[in-house]
Write a structure and sequence with these properties.
Number of helices: 1
Radius of gyration: 27 Å
Shape: rod-shaped
Strand content: under 5%
Oligomer: single chain
Number of strands: 0
Distance between the termini: 88 Å
Order of helices and strands: H
Length: 52
């Protein structure tokens, strides 16, 4: 009882999503960090204003 070893099915021709460029991720990270710092700064100024 010998079974024929079937070769794996060839991958379908699906369009591959290209990996995002590291520069894009760096830009997103910088933008997120700046916005976070800005929001934190606003929060700190509001707290200081509430104390004064």
């Amino acid at each position: 009882m010998t079974r024929k070893h079937r070769s794996p099915t060839p991958p379908r021709n699906t369009p591959e999503i290209p990996a995002p460029r590291p520069t894009l991720w760096a830009a997103l990270g910088v933008a997120a960090a700046l916005s976070l710092l800005w929001l934190l700064g606003l929060g700190l100024w509001r707290l200081i204003g509430a104390w004064i």
